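Structure first, sequence second, as always.
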């Protein structure tokens, strides 16, 4: 994802959707990988449901 952020810059929008982790964990993940895109905390699942997010990558 970081490579895509750098390569495409403002021509690409990445939205990370997190359904479970604590905010500190999400911020740590973003910092660890140098990610600058938006992270959405989707606790009750409306975004995942609206966009039919069936599975999410794990690290």
């Amino acid at each position: 994802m970081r490579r895509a952020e750098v390569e495409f810059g403002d021509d690409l929008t990445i939205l990370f959707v997190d359904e479970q982790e604590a905010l500190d964990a999400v911020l740590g993940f973003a910092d660890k990988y140098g990610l600058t895109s938006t992270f959405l905390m989707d606790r009750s699942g409306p975004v995942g449901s609206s966009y039919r997010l069936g599975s999410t990558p794990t690290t």
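Margin note: The radius of gyration is 12 Å.
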